[in-house]
Amino acid sequence: MITDRQLLILQAIIDDFIRNAQPIGSRSLSKKEGIAFSSATIRNEMSDLEEFGFLEKTHTSSGRIPSEKGYRYYVDHLLAPQSLKTDDRRIIRSIFADRIYELEKIVQKSAKILSELTNYTSIVLGPKVKDNKLKKIQIISLSRETAIAIIITDTGHVENKVISLPPSFDMNEIEKMANILNDRLVGVPLAELRDKIYKEVAVLLSQHIHNYGTLVTSLAETLDISNPPKLFFGGKTNMLKQPEFHDIDKVSSLLSLIEQEQGLYEIMKQNPAGIHVKIGRENNNVLLEDCSLITATYSVGQQQVGTIAILGPTRMEYSRVISLLEFFSKDMTALLTKLYQNY
Amino acid sequence: MITDRQLLILQAIIDDFIRNAQPIGSRSLSKKEGIAFSSATIRNEMSDLEEFGFLEKTHTSSGRIPSEKGYRYYVDHLLAPQSLKTDDRRIIRSIFADRIYELEKIVQKSAKILSELTNYTSIVLGPKVKDNKLKKIQIISLSRETAIAIIITDTGHVENKVISLPPSFDMNEIEKMANILNDRLVGVPLAELRDKIYKEVAVLLSQHIHNYGTLVTSLAETLDISNPPKLFFGGKTNMLKQPEFHDIDKVSSLLSLIEQEQGLYEIMKQNPAGIHVKIGRENNNVLLEDCSLITATYSVGQQQVGTIAILGPTRMEYSRVISLLEFFSKDMTALLTKLYQNY
DNA sequence: GTTAGCACTCTGTCCTCTTGAGTGCTAATA
DNA sequence: TATTAGCACTCAAGAGGACAGAGTGCTAAC
């Protein structure tokens, strides 16, 4: 079994490594405050910890560094729940201080501030709109061939799409069309609009509008708001500041992954409520082998709407980042709930 | 005076350096096709070219590399107008092939494709909306305290803003308000909306609407669409592939510049029509000392609406990039003119 | 005016040596 | 029996030297 002293040493090593990014040896560790045993004793304990798989060596006579398993144990058992500095609280609160009504702007600003606070890369998966329900749809004619559909959802999200009109469409019929759409589609989740248009609206349109054939397809396809939630980033280049990423090739492929978005989206979207830590290879992605990803979710009322994550090296300040995200996610949820729940 | 043979040599050196990123010496140059003189002769000519300031050495016994002045001469006088490969044409045309009606999407896609085609970073300054004229404004109530203003411009650009309503605002007055706004503001350039609201609309609102005081401020401030045009990027990380940016610190500060946007925006916004090349320090920015920026503009009809740029190392394939941008800007202008001019 | 030849220079690479920080093992100690 | 001191050993990183390769500038010959 693992002893208390071993845990003390493990914790000291990981804390030190997170700070200095350097392998740490028995002698320097023995000089640390709170460590009262000789370097020889520490060597023995380290050797045991290595056998358990919590530590690794970079070469035979180097100091030890934490292994993935070591970080995992540290995160699961050794993390002292650190309370946030008032400064940090204040800065996070400032995100929500301005009266901003657009969710996207809040999300964008959050990404920026979280990356500045942590010096890592922040990724925010914006609110899922496709679960939102249609509140109102407006159609405004633009030219002979095009009109704009403005879609407003129950959470206050607004989206506009250009729809193309059939060649000989009568402008007077726009209002009729809008009425039909509102009549039938209000309250329908955005993801189901397309279906509903084909199934219910098409019939009605055929009764009231000339030339409805191509119009139905055009409507159904443009109102199909199944576009995945947007990803927002902050501090994309913060990775470059970390000593473990001073290798151009590593950093290059990592940044490509970030820029591509697709890969990260897959990772972000499957996120259960609460705070989760994925360390190194737990991310199931070669490019993220040396990274850890800490995710948190935010909600409107009880409904979880988005995910926020911090991406850093495995040698990440877990404690601080977790506290930040906890605080942030609580505040964000509170704000969103207040703003949008009663629509 | 500079002789024809010197120009031939200068051109050969620059072409070679653009390809291989290695200083080039007299002997290897003498082996090149089209160069019929001995290495000694070339050495003499190179020495002259260096005296003129067109070439540099990295150290006393190294081969030569082009100086900024060398590139400048090359771009101004030696560039053979290269015609585009049909492949490239096809790919650029494909941007405009889909029936996309939203300008932003076209711009975004352009940035992506141009960066893929060149392997450099592309930057597109989106259309200036503030010169657009208001075509229609719609107001849709959202909650007790908020409503959405939808602003449509003569170029088909749509923007929505949340406006906050005074506490005891009567919902029935929304339509009245919208009518007043439309009546007074249609045809007004977006940049002047704010002014016009204070000067003309305020009076009218005071006559027809209770509680108009805070409403006017709220309207004026939210409808103030002086937000600068957006910047779109493609291939932000392409810089990392260039051998001259294999230095982390250099690349890090350059990417920060790109991520900040502000600096680049300043550079992009002041752009006269046509294609322009800025080499190294001509960019007036320490971080861009080793970069060249080639910009082109695009228009709707006669009105120039945006700028597109390619950012690469000074050792850039000027000829190819210029051809690409020329072709692109012509096509883009043609498409936009067709789509939006007759609104 | 052009070219051949030669002495010289600088970079990059390879090798060796040395130092310092670390380890593991063994024997002495509390 | 658990801890510590001591010692031999290992490895990385840095310094210094030797050397090959690619280049230059200059001078003299063509």
Features:
five-stranded antiparallel β-sheet, Heat-inducible transcription repressor HrcA (chains A, B), three-stranded antiparallel β-sheet, transcription (chains A, B), Enolase-like, domain 1, 343 residues, DNA-binding, transcription regulation (chains A, B), Beta-Lactamase, HrcA_C (chains A, B), alpha+beta, 3 domains, homodimer
Distance between the termini of chain A: 56 Å
- Sheet with the most strands of chain A? 5 strands, antiparallel
What is the general shape of chain A?
Answer: elongated
- Global Rg of chain A: 27 Å
Order of helices and strands of chain A: HHHEEHHHEEEEHHHEHHEEEH
Average of per-residue pLDDT values of chain A: 90
Low-confidence stretches of chain A: none
Oligomeric grouping of the chains: homodimer
- CATH-level-2 architecture of the largest domain in chain A: 2-Layer Sandwich
Beta content of chain A comes to 15-25%
CATH superfamily of the largest domain in chain A: GAF domain
Main structural class of chain A:
alpha+beta
Supply the CATH class of the largest domain in chain A.
Alpha Beta
Write the layout of secondary structure elements.
Two copies of one chain form a homodimer.
Chain A: H1 4-20, H2 26-30, H3 39-52, E1 55-57, E2 64-66, H4 68-78, H5 86-97, H6 103-118, E3 121-125, E4 134-141, E5 146-153, E6 158-164, H7 173-185, H8 193-208, H9 212-222, E7 231-234, H10 248-260, H11 262-269, E8 276-279, E9 291-300, E10 303-313, H12 318-340
Antiparallel strand pairs in A: 1-2, 3-7, 3-10, 4-5, 5-6, 8-9, 9-10
Helix pairs in contact in A: 1-3, 1-4, 5-6, 5-12, 7-8, 8-9
The structure holds a DNA duplex (30 and 30 nucleotides).
